[in-house]
Design goal:
The complex is a heterodimer. Chain A is built from 13 helices and 25 strands. By secondary structure, chain B is mostly helical. The chains are: A alpha+beta, B mainly alpha.
């Protein structure tokens, strides 16, 4: 069977730009057609911003790679037009089980809170997500939206100028030059853009190796995340088993630091390890095997003039916690509406500095969480191991120790507390929807709150008179009632009888009030696009 | 008399755990053991309730790999 990752989805074809007398100029060029680059391109194209994606390859990535996608990512994918197919194809899961030595010590349930359109997590092979995004980009192009993906176009050099970026691009038919007003680098952890620009990427290397194997098997393991500390089949190390669509199972085996990486990748080494774990009589087929080490690090700044970094190119974390691809999609979700505003002149260039503030904040949160998980899984000292094992022993019997068991703190959306675009609260309202937080979903008639929001700013008017903001045609006013909607009332009103919420295009709350105040709304709106005088940009 | 609380009582367990292991960074085995002993004595004094402390001693003793599962 031909796998999707063996099929060219955007094969090279010659573009008129390659025969142009002088380099063609584009509004935005995105480097890298992984999930993050594709999400950026779709978001921009949906906003009417012309975008060209360059990738040195012509197909989706091989192997399942990122598999665990969060509710927040599904909500972003809904806006990009891929939420349904991702949710339908993915495996929804809520339960996990933790083993220590030979014992099943406890199980947990991520207990999905009711009243959300999307589940807490789905598992989906990265190649499926990329395929859905490529198909969405191609569908947009067919509708006449300004988006194209150029396969086997590799950037060889980058020249930075005050008002544009110049690229030297290599193709199977030779080189050509391009210019872009803005460049978004989504070219992965080994980002050639970062290297060509000589930029830092500082952090911590973890001295450990993990064998990652995707196996196809008909097994009756439940759809749960199983994590082992120090199991008999992998002494002194850890192991993970997790289900993906198509009877593909993700297996992660910690190997330690001093190993022969090439030898460990060979099937004659891998298969006995898997049999020891799964049982001698379980039949399986290896789909993909890799050995990885990881680092927790980020660039000091994500914006360098007209070059903006997103996803793994900007920050890298350990895989425990599903914070790689999930945070990359939050990057582009944060960036694209801002870039569209700067390009159409409705916001100053300094709005892009808030991307840097907010996503560096997000990256630091992810690095902290994934570092803590890593230190629990791979204790850094003998005494750390003593505490780790004590927690596991206690967790088998006592509930209090279970929150300390850390096999990965799974990605939750970043809340930009004290963010530069927020307007501070003036009244007591629910913390879950505070300025800087992503708006929590709620049922709304036959549909969902998040689906009812506009593509640009939205002003929610809940059980309160609905004003028309002056001179702000781009704000969608959405009058709602929470009278027969207890979930909406709980999440957005709390003790208030009514409320106005100003929601950013990326669905983060910019400001909120219990009563209408036209001047306050106008001021908050200006602040949220970095036009407020004397604010953070001053 | 209050019972020993064995339900979740830390607002941010991850942060406490990170701080607990960080305070041992760079210590020798002997120094780590001594730090743990001091920590236990400080916490015992703070708890101050002999009944609770006795239950804690029992809870800590009865959880071992041999006795469970």
């Amino acid at each position: 069977m031909t796998k999707i990752f063996e099929t060219p989805l955007y094969p090279y074809s010659r573009h008129p730009d390659q025969d142009a007398a002088s380099p063609a100029r584009h509004k935005v060029i995105v480097l890298g057609a992984g999930p993050v680059g594709l999400a950026a391109a779709i978001d921009l194209a949906q906003r009417g911003v012309p975008v060209v994606v360059l990738d040195e390859n012509d197909r989706v990535s091989s192997g399942s790679r990122a598999i665990c996608f969060s509710k927040r990512t599904l909500e972003i994918l809904d806006r990009l037009g891929c939420g349904d197919i991702a949710a339908e194809t993915g495996v929804t899961w809520n339960k996990g089980r933790v083993f220590f030595d030979e014992r099943d010590i406890f199980e947990f349930n991520l207990l999905p809170e009711e009243g959300h359109k999307r589940p807490a997590f789905i598992n989906l092979q990265q190649y499926y997500l990329e395929q859905f995004l490529v198909e969405r980009a191609q569908a947009l192009a067919a509708e006449g939206k300004p988006i194209e993906i150029r396969g086997r176009n590799r950037v060889e050099a980058i020249g930075r100028h005050s008002d544009h970026v110049r690229l030297e691009v290599e193709t199977p038919e030779g080189p050509y030059e391009l210019q872009a007003d803005w460049l978004i680098a989504c070219d992965g952890a080994n980002s050639p853009t970062r290297r060509m620009m000589g930029l830092d990427f500082v952090g911590r290397v973890f001295e450990d190796n993990f064998l990652i194997a995707d196996v196809v098997m008909k097994a009756d393991f439940p759809t749960e995340r199983w994590f082992w500390f120090d199991p008999p089949f992998n002494r002194g190390q850890s192991a993970l088993l997790h289900r993906q669509p198509d009877n593909v199972w993700r297996i992660d085996l910690q190997l330690g630091w001093d190993i022969d990486r090439e030898a460990e990748k060979q099937p004659e080494r891998v298969i006995p390890r898997l049999k020891a774990m799964l049982g001698e009589d379980v039949e399986f087929e290896l789909e993909w095997v890799s050995i990885y080490t990881f680092q927790c690090r980020r660039m000091e700044k994500f914006r360098h003039g007209r070059v903006i970094f997103a996803g793994d190119a900007a920050h890298q974390v350990s895989p425990f916690g599903a914070r790689g691809a999930n945070s990359g999609l939050q990057d582009t979700d944060n960036l694209c509406w801002k870039l569209a505003r700067v390009l159409d002149g409705s916001a100053p260039e300094s709005l892009l500095d808030s991307y840097d503030w907010e996503r560096v904040y997000g990256a630091d949160e992810n690095i902290m969480n994934s570092t803590r998980s890593t230190e629990f899984i791979t204790p850094k000292s003998e005494i750390s191991r003593v505490f780790r094992d004590a927690v596991l022993d206690l967790a088998a019997r006592h509930d209090f120790a279970r929150p300390m068991v850390n096999s990965g703190r799974l990605s939750v959306p970043c809340i930009y507390d004290d963010g530069p675009l927020n307007t501070e609260d003036s009244a007591e309202m629910p913390a879950c929807a505070r300025p800087g937080a992503p708006l929590p979903d709620a049922p709304l008639g036959d549909g969902w709150l998040l689906d009812a929001l506009g593509r640009d700013f939205t002003l929610l008017a809940i059980d309160t008179p609905c004003p028309e903001p002056a001179n702000q045609a781009e704000v969608t006013v959405l009058p709602l009632s929470a009278k027969d909607n207890p979930i909406l009332a709980k999440r957005l009103l709390g003790a208030q009888s009514g409320a106005l919420y100003l929601i950013r295009p990326d669905h983060h709350v910019a400001a909120r009030w219990p009563n209408h105040d036209a001047l306050a709304i106008e001021t908050a709106l200006r602040r949220s696009v970095a036009m407020q005088q004397g604010g953070w940009n001053a | 008399m209050p019972d020993l609380n064995l339900t979740r009582n830390l607002a941010d367990a991850d942060r406490f755990y990170a701080n607990l292991t960080a305070v041992h960074d760079g210590l020798s085995k002997a120094d780590s053991d001594a730090l743990n002993a001091r920590l236990i004595l400080i916490l015992a004094n703070h708890i101050g309730d002999e009944f609770v402390l006795e239950q804690a001693l029992i809870a800590a003793s009865e959880v071992s790999r041999q006795s469970v599962g």
